[in-house]
Fold this sequence. Notes:
By secondary structure, this protein is an alpha/beta fold. The longest helix is centred in the last third of the chain and has 33 residues, at 833-865.
Amino acid sequence: MAISFGKGCHLHLIDGSAFIFRAFHALPPLTRKSDGLPVGAVSGFCNMLQKYIEGNSATHIAVIFDKGSHTFRNDLYDQYKANRSEMPEDLRPQIPLTRRATEAFNIACKEIEGYEADDIIATLARQAREAGGQCTIVSSDKDLMQLVGDGVDMLDQMKNTVIDREGVEAKFGVPPEKVVDVQALAGDSVDNIPGAPGIGIKTAALLINEFGSLDELLERAEEIPQPKRRQTLIDHAEQIRLSQKLVTLDDQTPLDFTLDDLEKRDPNPETLLGFLQEMEFRTIVKRISDYLGVEAPAMPDTNPAGAEPTAVEQPDFTEATYEAVSDMAVLDAWIARIHERGYVAVDTETTSLNEMQAELVGISLAVEPGHACYIPLTHKKSEADDLFAEEGLAEGQLELEAVLEKLKPVLEDDAILKIGQNLKYDWKILARYGVTVAPIEDTLLLSYALNAGLHQHGMDTLSERYLAHNPIPIKEIIGTGKSQITFDRVPIDKAVPYAAEDADITLRLWQVFKPQLHPKQVTTVYETLERPLIPVLARMEMAGVEVDRAVLHRMSSAFAQKMAQLEEEIHELAGENFKVGSPKQLGEILFDKMNLPGGKKGKTGAYATGADILEDLATEHDLPGRVLDWRQLSKLKSTYTDALQDHINPETGRVHTSYSIAGANTGRLASTDPNLQNIPVRTEEGRRIREAFVAPEGKTLVSLDYSQIELRILTQFADVPALERAFRDGEDIHASTASEMFDVPLDEMTPEVRRRAKAINFGVIYGISGFGLARNLRIPREEAQGFIDRYFERFPGIKDYMTETTDFAKKNGYVQTLFGRKIHTPEINAKGPTAGFARRAAINAPIQGTAADVIRRAMIRMEAAIADIPAKMLLQVHDELLFEVEEGHEDALIAAAREVMEGAHKPVLDLEVPLSVDAGQGRNWAEAH
DNA sequence: GAGTTCACG
DNA sequence: GACGTACGTGAACTCA
């Protein structure tokens, strides 16, 4: 029955082109199995449309596309969108497919020659509002934000967030009606809207808020206090008015259809499933068939004999059966199934995220998608059942020891793969219960090897992305904040679906990822650089490092005293009491009250008061220097001397960090809770904190670190003969660089010249820019650029490396380390400031990543190499390994560890430049480093 | 929870 | 003086 659009109706307008573009860049490059046709964006698009089939608030719906490249905006301004880059090769064939998809879903698909989708959307949104209905614009494009308000909102489908008036204000600093004014001033590099030079969104919002509107502002431009800004606005008034016309959406587009034509219609199952079948979207076909209650059409056989196995058909999550195991016979049956399969997905539930303190609460297992169980072990009785709930275990649980006795042989069985998501966690928990899990697979690491740089690798992310399923949030089970409970307090019936689902998801992800390793050529990376690291890191983390609480405590007290003194002096100098730790208040004191030179900046409009700014200001006044001293002490106290004491494990008396293997995109590890990779060393006061990291009685700390590993690797990548020679001859590399660049003989080198060369060497590793080097060296930008030009002239290989790496990234969407690790660079073809970031990251990633690979290889080999020495590897700090060794065996350890580290690249790689390792030893880390 | 600052390689 | 910039991280703090 047709209803006329009006009150109670809800129109959803999907910005088609924007969605596919974003889906294309956000999703992995999925191809149709039978012929390799790229269909990733189409699949993302269909996933989104599928939600409309299953039902939501929409009563009317349309997908709006752009049509034609010439619009009225080109008549106004011939440079409009002139810098748009070509559509990516793989996206082009997907555009017509998304139109077909829209039709197959029986959703209105609208476009009008000579009009941008945004204008059609504006017109429809206006009509919907005037008719008294609601409108949701499915897009995150900021150009559409001017339409928000009065029943119109926006939905970012990929982030699943709603953008309302508040959202627009947060983004633009002004309400939706004034967004065009801000955009007119700020301009837009993506669409090539000129705006006012030197004015960004923040400044624009400031001005509009002050003057009320753009017209008012331009009329009263003389009143702007800042001379430069005033002149800009006066000089560019014409251009700004033009920009305003360009960004203002036309809500009077002539339409050849009405709102009523957009009423939501049921799809024809045959047409829809036919299309999806043609695209070979198995999961969506299955889901929609189930939803429509029809039989899923057969899929073509896309896996002929001999071909690499591809995706596996998996049942829908709604059909999954998850059971609680409370009977030994049932457990036996599960174990029998595991033996039959040869693999099992495992997940442990515990009382804490801290693996060194967490107690096992239950274990879940999955052997095939949709079939998983949860074995509750130590859930507590609920308080409703028992006033003395503290003590008793809930009913219906098998005994922990008995279950572990049964499972241990399975978990340690060489013939059975144990699959986990972030298995290092479960490995450590089970190790504390006497079980050494092996052999292992980890879906987090599979995703990292396959997709580093594309997205994070947590279970929720992966499940949503690759299984189109949102797992039960842990918050729903244990709550949040103060009322959060530990998992052993969760009623068993509530724990089962959550815990079993995790194992199910893990198994399904494994089935998705594992077959991709080979085609994506990352099998070796996964098998030699990722997976073997799990037990190595687990043992290091469990070993921990001894920290002397008394030393830290003394330092904390001393810092507190000195800070109080400084605070008093600071207040005196400021002439008032304020929070020294508040950058906001400090900024107001320095720049508003004391009128020191320096200005507002940053996204929030707050004054920047970073160390570099305060250092510059220190010549003007005593206060900034005191604040710097105070800040240093505050940092040392709160982050180190205080916090580290809280991290001393009461049982072991040591500090146990946790390493994330997939934390950094480049292959580096990251250390958390606490971070032991950023213990101070650069200043004398800070370095003393390392005196608290000690060797126990009868032992010594030994530290070995790679010397200039990244520069050596860069030299290898770039093939720079002069640098190769300098490294081979064991020269001071920065001095050699300086000598080569500035034609100063080595024996006449001055510290200042060497310092500059050193800054350039580092800059090169970071994807140097004139701006960055100028800031670092505090010299004019032109001079810095001159240095860079000269550097490239002397070392042309470096320039080539940079160009080749950037080109490779643009072509392939990733860069690679010398060991084959892939780091994806999805933003490399972006426009605007993002492009610079992406380019520098792409240049840096192979260098940083290769160094990370080298030390990973060393760590993996280390245990066997030092097996006969009474020593343990404790910490890794990117290019350094810290060991604890029994006294008398220091030299043996250093010799063995050095051999492993210096030869870590072999045998797969020959290096023109040798790797070199420095060693130190002592009673504490300060002495050893 | 975002933004700022600062500790490390 | 600023369209924003050295690469990669994690933690503590302030403030909305």
